[in-house]
Amino acid sequence: MYRDKVVQRSEYEWEIAPFGKMRVPAIFYATPDLIKGMDDKVFEQAVNVATLPGIVKASYAMPDAHWGYGFPIGGVAAFDAREGGVVSAGGVGFDISCGVRTLHTGLDVATVMANAHALAETLYRTIPAGLGSTGAISLNHHQMDEMLRGGARWAVEQGFGREADLSRIEEHGCMVGAKPEEVSPQAKKRQRDEMGTLGSGNHYLEVQQVTAIHDEAAAHVFGLKTGDVVVSIHCGSRGLGHQIGTDFLREMVIAAAQHGIELPDRELACAPLNSPLGQSYLGAMRAGINCALANRQILTHLTRQVFAKVFPGTTLDLLYDVSHNTCKEEVHEIDGKKRHLFVHRKGATRAFGPGHADLPDVFKPIGQPVIIGGSMGTASYILVGTAEGEARSFSSACHGAGRAMSRHAATHQWRGTKVVEELAHRGILIRSPSMRGVAEEAPGAYKDVSAVVRAADIAGLARIVARLEPMVCIKG
Predict the structure, then answer these.
(1) Which whole-number Å values give the CA distances from 345 to 175, 283, 323, 429, in the listed order?
(2) What are the sequence ranges of the domains in the chain?
């Protein structure tokens, strides 16, 4: 039904014009092959998002879009509080502020390969990974609240990293407006022993080599060249973020009806931004963002310790840290006027273009680094935000390859031990506590990440800067 309504507007842009209760169009950025490969539910969910009160301009889907909870993963939507706009826990996702940070190692490929097995084993022993994994840090009630207020800044103050890291993190490492008091005791309990852990699913710590440079000017600013070795860390807010999503979705289903909001899908549960529940969720979600930023900061500290042990003298400077499951208040230009909007990015990455005030001075001439994770045995990419992206997607881009099949289906097609063996033959070392988890995350279970980033590049959402290939991967 919904696929039949998709009309191609350009080489990279597709649209479902408003019909029924849609307030705005649904716009999809993809190549013909990627559109063909999207599951039908993506189109239905993008249309459903377009019916929500206060939505501005369009409901967007990025090139990696696939079926999610309420919103498609890869979905972007902005809402105006002054026009009755809403905030949706499903539009943020359960892993609040899941994101990726990339670190320079200062090492070359030959040096790392000569010690790859020692590096893999030491990282695996040091970085807690897997379902329910816990770390050496245990937070009491006061420490938990301080972490939820302070984010990566709190982590640095506790000795996990350097002050210089903070300028290379979204929100400078600390999301303002966090309200730990809006986070349930159960959410805090789940997180108490999970700081500095990767978790499970598609989360990873990966040592990567730069194999190609596509934009020399941006690569120079980012400090990247062919043959460099970097480390990328992909994880989020762990049990705390999941519990926040669970807690508020339950309340939002009830609140939507009370506010006269007709939901085409219960998973789109939401609350008006200006309502007490909407404000409560924003405070809790911002605390979840800080949890994720602190978590990645602690993991960075642990990673630096490992590299200093295996490769004495290394420092691992931070390139950038960017999230892809958030709702943030931002200023965007609509029809020539600047408006304060609440931009939901679910499985979509912020991609500010050149000159944006929120960027570190070093990136303002070129734009924001956009880090796109691969899938264990495939490439990852670093892109840069564009000026065009502001008008096309509220300065948003894709966040990864996007799943091509469910985790359940993947376990029927691959065995984890076989995946590990095959990748080892290609020179990629995998360490994971769960072979089932490896099977679920088999590279073949994902779309072609190179096709996804090419589509983002062609669409003008972000420009390809560098291609990264995996060398060592610690999987949850």
Answers:
(1) 16, 17, 9, 32
(2) 3-475
pLDDT digits (tens, 9 = 90+) for 195-250: 999 988 889 999 999 999 999 999 999 999 999 999 999 999 999 999 999 999 99
The dihedral built from the CA positions of residue 237, 240, 246 and 249, taken in this order, carries a sign that is negative
Q: Which of 423, 198, 380 is nearest to 295 (CA)?
A: 198
Q: Give the end-to-end CA distance of the chain in Å, rounded to a whole number.
A: 38
From CA 423, how far away is CA 430, in angstroms rounded? Answer: 8
Token pair of 204 as six digits = 């990873």
**What DSSP character marks residue 449?**
H
Q: Are 51 and 31 in contact (CB under 8 A)?
A: no
pLDDT digits (tens, 9 = 90+) for 438-473: 988 888 888 899 999 999 999 999 999 999 999 999
Cα–Cα dist 152/174, whole Å: 6
* Class of CATH domain 3-475: alpha beta
Q: What is the DSSP string of 395-433?
A: SEE--B--BSS-HHHHHHH--HHHHHHHHHHTT-EEE-S
- Which sequence positions are flagged as catalytic? 399
**Interhelix angle 276-310/238-258, nearest 10 degrees:** 170
Can you tell me the distance from the alpha carbon of 241 to that of 416, in angstroms, rounded to the nearest whole number? Answer: 28
Q: Are 324 and 203 in contact (CB under 8 A)?
A: no
CA-CA-CA-CA dihedral for 165, 173, 100, 205, to nearest 10: 60
Alpha helical stretches, state H, 158-231: 185-191, 216-222
Question: pTM for the complete prediction?
Answer: 0.96
Between CA 231 and CA 320 the distance in angstroms is 11
